[in-house]
Amino acid sequence: METRIDEIADGIFRLSTFVPDIAPPAGFTFNQFLVLGDEPLMFHTGLRRMFPLNHAALARIIPAEHLRWIAFGHFEADECGAMNEWLAAAPQATPAHGQTGCLVSLTDFADRAPRILADGEVINLGRGKRLRFIDTPHTPHGWDAGVMFEESTRTLLCGDLFTQLGNDRALTEGDVVGPAIAAEDLFRYSALNPAMGATIRSLAALAPRTLALMHGPSFTGDGATALSALADDYDRRVSGAVRAMTATV
Ligand SMILES: [Fe+2]
Ligand SMILES: [Fe+2]
Predict the structure, then answer these.
(1) How far does the centroid of ligand 2 lie from the alpha carbon of residue 79, in Å?
(2) Which residues does residue 220 pair with via DSSP β-bridges, in sequence order?
(3) Strands 129-135 and 122-126
(4) Euclidean distance between CA atoms 104 and 153, whole angstroms
(5) For the whole model, what pTM was predicted?
(6) d(Cα 150, Cα 32) in Å, to the nearest integer?
(7) How far apart are CA 4 and CA 169, in angstroms?
(8) Domain count, the chain
(9) Bridge partner residues of 98 (DSSP)
(10) CA of 162 to the centre of ligand 2 (A)
(11) For residue 31, which ligand has an atom nearest its CA?
(12) Which residues have a beta carbon within 5 Å of ligand 2, which is an ion?
């Protein structure tokens, strides 16, 4: 395995490792995002066992000890499994996550005390980069789920939203909704809940220009339309699940 690096927006780098054995023949990517600034931030730590690969990749951009923030979308192995390895490699770095995730998991799991981010709170990285944390509970999964929005580039760090198979490109202007619907049909990875359509539509209101997918290519274009279409599909799934349930009672 190797980790590929692409700059997907100004000062935002995608570190991508492709695993062909997951959901073959298409395979599956695991992507970390490095946002540069006076206080560089990495979104997702990657799997613990991928730490050597990701550490070597990051070192091609900046020394790991320059990292100041370790953030991610929800508490799960690919999102934060290597957190403590990164904290050891970056002595000045602080883990940052939403209130639920910090109080439920990080205050115990993290080797360094986390910064607890309120919904909407901004981490100012300097050099114009500002990352806003947004709570998205149970969307697509995880009580503690959240995303981050980089305001200067209008880049939404989507976490598992839009998860899709394959590894044909780092950045696309093409369809990311159809492949996400197909991956949801395959994996059933989302915690369907009545609020998720509205939660995803609230992200569309940010009008992102770039969607940084944890599993799949990054997307450049009309992020609001893509998010609205994804929200519509989840509304369809939730309504269908409720209809199926009420039909049996
Ligand atoms: Fe996840
Ligand atoms: Fe993930």
Answers:
(1) 6
(2) 210
(3) antiparallel
(4) 32
(5) 0.97
(6) 15
(7) 11
(8) 1
(9) 117
(10) 10
(11) 2
(12) 78, 160, 214
Whether residue 208 has a cis bond before it, omega within 30° of 0:
no
CATH of the domain at 14: 3.60.15.10
Q: Give the CA angle between residues 245, 246, 249 to the nearest 5°.
A: 95
Confidence class of residue 224 from pLDDT cuts 50, 70 and 90?
very high
Return d(Cα 89, Cα 10) in angstroms, integer: 25
**Residue 140: cis peptide before it, omega within 30 degrees of 0:** yes
CB-CB contact of 174 with 226 (8 Å): no
Domain range enclosing 146 = 3-247
Q: Which pair of tokens denotes residue 92? A: 């000045």
* Sole residue written with tokens 């995880």: 142
Q: In this model, does residue 102 exceed pLDDT 80?
A: yes
What is the tens place of the pLDDT at every residue in 103-117?
999 999 999 999 999
* Separation CA 227–CA 170 (nearest Å): 19
Residue pair 147/156 in contact (Cβ under 8 Å)? The answer is yes
Q: Which amino acid is at 64?
A: A
Q: How crowded is residue 95: how many other Cβ atoms within 10 Å of its Cβ?
A: 24
Residues in the chain: 249
78: tokens are: 């690919």
**How remote is the CA of residue 131 from the centroid of ligand 1, in Å?**
20
In whole angstroms, give the CA distance from residue 11 to residue 3: 18
State percent of the chain over pLDDT 90: 96
Kind of pairing, strands 41-43 and 28-35? antiparallel
